[in-house]
Predict the 3D structure of the following.
Amino acid sequence: MSRCWFVDDNRYLFEVKRLCELVGVSRARYYRWRRPRISERVLVDAWLTNLIYDIHVASRSTYGSLRVFGQSGRNGWRIGENHVARLMVDVGLFGAQSHKR
């Protein structure tokens, strides 16, 4: 939103009220833009990523997403297998892979 950027860039030179009137943006909209809220999903994903990391480290970095998913179920967390896999990929965690003979 370039109009809010303009207001933000010039807020030290002029009043925010006047700048918002000039570009046609309400002050509430500008302040909402300036202070975005973190969604609940992002917070939950961050919390789950910490728990997944703890399980992964406890397994000496051998557990992949399927085993981490199973362990999380045993710990009482309700989380899907694909969700675990997505979070592990996002932070670069992967399990040890066995070689077929």
